[in-house]
Amino acid sequence: MSRINLMGLVRDTIKGLKAYHVENLGEGTKLHANENPYSPSPELLNEIFSRLDILELNRYPDPDCKNLRKAISFKTSAPIEQIIVGNGSDELIQYLMQVLCNEGDTIAFPDPTFAMYGITAQCLGLNPISLPLNDNWGFEAQPALEILAQHKARIVFISYPNNPTGNCFSEREIQKVIEQFKGIVVLDEAYQDFSGKTFIEQMKKHNNLVIFRSLSKIGLAGLRVGYGIFPVELVEQINKVRLPYNSNSVSQLVATGLLNNFTVVQNQIRSILDERDRLMDELSKFSSIVAYPSNSNFILFKACKGGENIFNSLKENGILLRNLGSHPRLKDCLRITVGTKQENDQFLNRLRKVTS
Ligand SMILES: Cc1ncc(COP(=O)(O)O)c(C=O)c1O
Question: Pocket around ligand 1: residues whose beta carbon is below 6 Å from it?
């Protein structure tokens, strides 16, 4: 029998971390993960089922995701050679850091923002630093550029729109960073389908820009499909660290089908945006709630009489939101993903009861 000291083998940086905790409900109303509340169309699902037998599931998937990359190229107008598919865009965050950073190097991001930039950096032994947003959740280029230069940062990740605050930062401020920062600027456009805003055109002029997108927010969260558009020189380098067959056959087939039949998704997006505006109007009627403007499929709001209480009460009634109260600048803040009309009404009714 062999008994070795397993913990003695684990890297110190990893021992010091906590696993990313995802709150979940078995059954109930899931308004916590910024997913699309609508499933893919029955037509798409039928087409996919009818083609499953020709997928040859006993074979490895297409390692180059050719059909999917073609569909992405068609949707984005980005050259196919610059597109890399990830098992979710989370995977691409890690690849980019692996390619560009040595242990101890600095990467940066506005704060508050999407947690995975910091977590991935820590796992890789990098130095994650934050660029504090102003009181309106705005991003200011000048102080950010100073911090980036001072730490010789190699990458800055900008979630555009920003999760969890929901807003798109000023284009002018981002432009200054693209033009002056001597490292890579990632525009993480995971919510671009809701904002309609993108920096993709800027890639023609600037070779320090990377764009990330995700299909998780528009209907395929369960299949883990994200993609990145990279400067040509970086594609080959990313492909060196990309795991072989990182995108599976089913995900490739369904994602290609979804993108090639985008009208259905477009209609779903329109309904989500209508519901977001209605939710915003309704939230503004609560005297004890401050809701922040959103360019996304979610809304951040502050519950002045206590966010924890509202979060727990909603959860006890089968409605799950994202509780952000542990972040020092997000005390009493909750994030609601826009659901169907029925789900949103369920949330509003319960909120009225808890806050009355
Ligand atoms: C800003 C941002 N980027 C990336 C992701 C991850 O997307 P994916 O599901 O494609 O890994 C999320 C998910 O919440 C996000 O909010």
Answer: 34, 88-90, 114, 159, 163, 188, 190, 214, 216, 226
Instruction: Give 32-61 pLDDT, tens digit per residue.
Output: 999 999 999 999 899 888 888 888 899 999
171 alpha carbon – ligand 1 mean position (Å): 21
Note whether 346 and 217 are same-domain residues. no
Residue 2 lies in a domain: no
State yes or no: cis peptide before 112, omega within 30 of 0.
Answer: yes
Q: What is the pTM of this model?
A: 0.96
The residue range of the domain holding 153 is 54-260
Written as one letter, the residue type at 159 is: S
Q: How far is the CA of 170 from the centre of ligand 1 (A)?
A: 21
Domain boundary among 236, 260, 284: 260
Are 55 and 47 spatial neighbours (Cβ–Cβ below 8 Å)? no
Amino acid at 286: F
For residue 250, give the CATH number of its domain.
3.40.640.10
